[in-house]
Write a structure and sequence with these properties.
There is one protein chain. The longest helix is centred in the last third of the chain and has 18 residues. The chain folds into 3 domains: 61 residues, Membrane-bound Lytic Murein Transglycosylase D, Chain A, CATH 3.10.350; 59 residues, Membrane-bound Lytic Murein Transglycosylase D, Chain A (Roll); 127 residues, Orthogonal Bundle (Lysozyme). The radius of gyration is 20 Å and the shape is globular. The chain starts with 12 loop residues before the first strand and ends with a helix. The chain is mainly alpha-helical and 315 residues long. 41% of the residues lie in helices and 10% in strands. A two-stranded antiparallel ribbon has the order 1-2.
């Protein structure tokens, strides 16, 4: 998620809820659990949280290191939340715990965290370095290390924090959490899981969402088209801004973040399905823009729609 940068201290920290954030998102960021946050802030329903609420952040839920590390599933947590917190993948967690359906995990289940993809450590003195990957922004780097964009820019003498070149070695100032992962991209199984989760959350066919994502990107998180469309759902930056502002009520989802990209793509397709006269025309609008869809589909639109429909049958 593209969070406002601030220190992720484990004890007595404060966090103001942003539009689009869930309690699970916040728990993952601060290395705690949804139930610990709910208890500390007197929240009776962890699935309902209002933007602007000031939360007290406390430690909670699970061990983050060691060969026998475990995590007890808290109310409101998904396997994706847990995987992100511990630097592993949904697929690795499911395999390590014999979970056949990663969309279904019971509260109170103790998960083994072996076979994961990373470690989580904290840094209180000194700093660290980070090499910018293709497609990364300074906001991405700041969110990863729990420090502000401004502090990274100041530490590295960057006059324009919106411009950072892939391959640049950045000095990360102290004060945040350092997350080191051995895998830089979610697996295909993780992407499929997220597509299912967002389809269910938006009341859209999971088969259709998976088909559109496969047609658009082959489920590849870091694909950028020649036209500038980004990620699994191939969301254009202008579309991402519109979805954040209009459909999501002023949220600040990051189109380059895999989960956020899928959220925006599914939200946009749901909107098109609600306003276009047929599903085929909604798909054509997703592909080529609503204004380019007439009474009859153009040949290139028909080819796209037919391909998605064929893929839907597969999924």
């Amino acid at each position: 998620m593209l969070w406002a940068a601030q220190s992720a201290a484990a004890h007595a920290a404060q966090h103001v809820v942003k539009k689009g954030e869930t309690l699970s998102d916040i728990a993952v960021r601060y290395g705690t659990s949804t139930s610990a946050l709910a208890r500390a802030n007197g929240l009776s329903n962890p699935n309902l949280i209002v933007a602007g609420t000031r939360l007290t952040i406390t430690a909670g839920g699970g061990s983050s290191s060691g060969a026998g590390a475990t995590h007890e599933v808290q109310a409101g947590e998904s396997l994706w939340d847990i995987a992100q917190r511990y630097g592993t993948t949904v697929h690795a967690l499911a395999q390590a715990n014999g979970i056949s359906d990663p969309n279904f995990v019971l509260v109170g289940t103790t998960l083994t965290l072996s076979g994961g993809g990373g470690t989580i450590t904290t840094s209180s003195t000194g700093g660290s370095t980070h090499t910018v990957s293709a497609g990364e922004t300074l906001s991405d780097v700041g969110a990863r290390y729990g420090v502000s964009v401004e502090s990274i820019a100041a530490a590295n003498g960057l006059a324009n924090p919106n411009l950072v070149v892939a391959g640049t070695s950045l000095t990360i100032p102290s004060g945040g959490a350092t997350i080191t992962q051995t895998s830089t991209a979610p697996s295909s199984a993780d992407v499929g899981y997220l597509l299912e989760q967002e389809a269910l959350a938006n009341g859209v066919s999971t088969s259709l969402i998976k088909a559109v994502a496969y047609q658009e990107s082959g489920w590849q998180p870091h694909v950028i088209s020649r036209a500038g469309a980004i990620g699994v759902m191939q969301v254009m930056p202008a579309t991402a801004r519109w979805v954040n502002k209009v459909l999501l009520g002023g949220a600040s989802l990051n189109v380059r973040d895999t989960h956020d990209n899928i959220k925006m793509g599914v939200s946009y397709l749901r909107y098109l399905l609600s306003i276009m006269p047929t599903q085929d025309k909604a798909l054509a609008a997703y592909y080529s823009g609503r204004g380019n869809v007439g009474s009859k589909l153009h040949r290139y639109q028909r080819v796209y729609v037919d391909s998605v429909n064929a893929l839907t049958a597969r999924f």
